[in-house]
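User: Second chain of the day. Same drill as before.
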Amino acid sequence: LLNTNLLPTSSNPVCPGDAREIRCQSLSMQPNNHFTWYGNGNYLGNTIGIPSYYVYYTGDYRVHVLDNTYGCRAEAMCNVGFLNAPTARITGRSEYCYGEEVALSGFSGSDNTYLWTLTDPDIGTLTDGNIHFLPAQSGSFLATLTVTNDEGCTATASYAYNVHPQVPAPPISLYGNQCIHQPPVNVRSDTSISLLWSNGFFGDTALYYTHGYISAHYIDSLSGCPSKNAFLLIPPAPNFEALLTGCYYRCDDFAFKIPV
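Assistant: Same format as last time:
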């Protein structure tokens, strides 16, 4: 088995992951020869009577040849090159609340092109390196990013994310003093859950000093997401002057205590 060579069958590089054939060439090749193949120092496999092997990545490849008839041995080596593959990697949060913007990053170079495919039917496909969007529904979704470089090679990465549904608004009501002309007005959570009130109070009750709509919500203990807002109207104080008609005189303000 003299003058044994190992060469790629084609000189045209291909993208990593596509196959390139390497073939052992010898003047004394026998049909029962045994071939042991190695790549970058690692054992790849054996073939009998088949002097070729398919490889998929750049590296140094070696073959050991055994002539099973005469016991002769030979060895050959070659380097196989592939085109450079782009990098596909997705980073971002995996948990979101409904109504919150999802942001995922996959940019790996301005010479690359990007194609995002999302299982969220309201979003579909996007073509920026970094993406952000507002989900129209809650659920568990998968984002798949395919990156293509200027040599035409591709790489793919996937990323799972969850959009938690928004829990219902808490019931709230007025209690105690409900008249804004003698503030404060008392409001409360009807389920004794501590709430975040629109005036900055936190707890199951709050005090308000002005009329108008107020709101309150709570943080769901399972998802960490805010609930829907509950709204309640604190009516303004009555305007007695608006109830009067005709001509009348208005006295200066004074205080007079009627004895009992």
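The mean pLDDT is 88.

User: Great, on to the next one.
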